[in-house]
Amino acid sequence: MTVRSLTSISPRVAPERLLADLVPPRHFRDARFSTYRADDAYPSQGDAVRHLEAVAERLTTRQRGFFRRRNDPPAVYLDGGFGVGKTHLLTSLAHAVGVEDCAYGTFVEYTNLVGALGFARTVEALAEKKLVCIDEFELDDPGDTVLMSRLLRELADRDTALAATSNTLPDALGEGRFAAEDFLREIQALAARFDVMRVDGEDYRHRGTTIAPQPLTAEQVRETAGRTEGATLDTLDDVVAHLATVHPSRYGAMLDDVPAVGLTEVHQVTEQSVALRLVVLVDRLYDRDIPVLLSRVGDAGRPGEGDRLFTPKMLDGGYRKKYYRALSRLGALIDDGRALAEGSVPAER
């Protein structure tokens, strides 16, 4: 069987699809408040569940517009580290309110939507929803942050409820509401409307900075991709070169009908632009539960150049939250890829 290449896929995406794709990702299709496993060691997790359940109840029973009052509609911000279940909680809220009444996307997906539709048209489209969920609110691009702050203000003024998440770095968890303070400062005009909920805990994926302690060999990657109908097979260098030619808003469409992605000759990336495109690709792979078959440079199962995908400087720089999130998610997808290669069913995450 001929294995196709991810680099051969250059989708055209209509702006309308960007809007239609604003739904909870497939990875969280079964997420509900009842399936969130709150850790008793971290009471804030249970508190967050109860608070969001109350928000859902309020949104599903209230009348919009006519009885509007100050601080209505509700707005909530989930602050916490990587892998503590904030996205699970956010998607649970969307399911409880009703997916048809929500828009759900990442920060990047909303900025891409504004770029495709224009600001006014985006506001009109999103204002039709009861709830707009923004996962992974990012504060590292001043222009995009100002744009999103304005968008949130317009939506709140249109009686649309808001819910957002962001990340506190693992080594900053003891410093209080690190990310929340940044978030509230950047959305000054809306800060008073948001209820901040801290979600403490450990990364349930238990990832560090190493992406594949037990990588596959290049032969295992090629063999598994070859027997997996629709899988893709490329070197990392070929993929990153292709990503530079595709707008990030199209990365999701590029993965349509792709059941697994094979990457060989994986090595550490040193250019920031390349690393940031990889972060977006990892997010779209994770949303779609697509296993990653990975082998590194020097693929005999020994530590190689791909042992750490991002440089120490990147992991300590301004985009470090994105990189840590990507490593956590990519590690889970690599585990699924190994399970696929070994003929076992990927463990539920």
TrEMBL record:
Keywords, ordered alphabetically: ATP-binding, Cell cycle, Cell division, Nucleotide-binding
Listed transmembrane segments: none
InterPro entries in alphabetical order: ATPase_AFG1-like, P-loop_NTPase
The keyword Cell wall biogenesis/degradation appears for this protein: no
GO BP: cell division
Gene3D superfamilies, sorted: P-loop containing nucleotide triphosphate hydrolases
PANTHER family tied to this protein: AFG1-LIKE ATPASE, ATPASE N2B
Protein name as it appears in the record: Cell division protein ZapE
Lineage: Bacteria, Bacillati, Actinomycetota, Actinomycetes, Micrococcales
